[in-house]
Amino acid sequence: MKSNKITLFNIVFILFSTCAFAQYNFELVKDINPSGLANPHLSIEHNNKLYFSAIDGTNGRELWVTDGTTTGTQLLKNIYSGRGSSYPSSFTEYNGKLYFRADDGINGEELWVTDGTTAGTQLLKDINSSSGSALLRFTVYNGKLYFSADDGINGKELWVTDGTTAGTQLLKDIYTGGTNSFPQNLTVYNNKLYFSADDGTNGRELWVTDGTTAGTQIVKDIYSGGDDSGPSDFTEYNGKLYFSADDGINGKELWVTDGTNAGTQMVYNISYSNSSFPSELIIYNGELYFTANDNINGTELWVSDGTSAGTQMVANINTTSHSYPRNLTIYNGKLYFSADDGINGMELWVSDGYNSGTVMVKDINSSSGSSPISFTVYNGELYFNAIDGTNGRELWVTNGTTAGTVKISPAVAPMSDPISMLVRFVELNNSLFFDARFTTAGRELWKLTTPNLSTHENVTENIAVYPNPVTNILHLQTVNNTNTIELYSITGSLIESWENSTKIDLTHQTTGIYIVKIITQQGVTTKKIIKK
User: Fold this and answer.
1) pLDDT attached to residue 167
2) pTM of the model
3) Is 6 inside a domain boundary?
């Protein structure tokens, strides 16, 4: 039971209203399930609205939509009538509508479409009349939507739709005889659609289609003899498609293709003794970064310019074992990720692409790893969730500095594990939406709003603050007289104020992020500062 929910929400709302200069403003968007947990699963922003699934305690897990307001957060359609759940998922934009999979309790899990209205949320086609078609991997290519599905006759194969029932068809039965070819990793490259599939003869190999049955063919049998090369992690770079694959001789290594059989080759044999398992491929600073295990240094951060000689380890983060770099994310011109150096556990790391510039940002959990995950860039900062050893998994933010890596939450009594490990952040109308359990309301839909400093500051007056980051004295430079300077915490609490001054002493303040409010004859300007 959540008997204190309304009172707590009112308290939180009052806190938001009085914290006009807080950097991080939290708001419970809506108490979707007053009697339990809504557990919203956020999916996609479409036409200035956020679509997601949630449980309201009456209809089961169904399709919901929000414009970011309480009144605009509504059940879009109860697809599985009664208390059953339709489990809508895999939302993909195509031709101005959202396509997804859902189970209406009659046809099983099938292909659905919505235009954002209840009446326009409909079953597009019952592909498998005997049970669900188990749709996966929606990918838009050449004006149509491609996916894998099982029609109950041909097995799980490659399908295509133009958005109509008649235009939803099997493209090709790759593994004939009713057996699954399991098309995976659908990726558009060079005006064609590449994927992996098993035709029953060559094993799981690299395939391509131009959208026609005749043009759906195997590119190369990388692992000859019927075994699987298992191509995966497709990433386009420098006009070619890179991926990991196993040729049966060198193990799973880094490969590249230009779309031809002859042009499909191994880039470099990273591990001569076993598979290096390249993964998390990402383009950064004009090169291809990924994780790999050379079976000498363990799984570490690697980089490639597309040549054998230019494929090298960036840094040996863990000199005794694997550092397991994960969640590679570009932010503010650098590459951020989680890694374990063998001393501090899995923590937040950053790299500029060089060994010397690959360093730990902050040891968040000094007793064990904080396991940061779900990195998301929003309004000039990097958000993620981590465990500092105090209150379970919580919301964190960083500007790339140690002092600027802080835990944030509403100004309420903390709940244990307020953020789930698999939380998904989605930006809508300059706010960051996510599911959280900050109060006794349970796990509900929340949003975070921060000022975009480039527009939030008073650009009519040129005020400089320095040094920033600051250790002791912060100086202000302005052409007008400063009437008042106010220092606020990141939660919006006024800490200290000064009158008619051009410098403030922050020696006694703890490290972290603060907001400085500067009042002159010309108006009000706010500045974000970092105390070292």
Assistant:
1) 98
2) 0.82
3) no
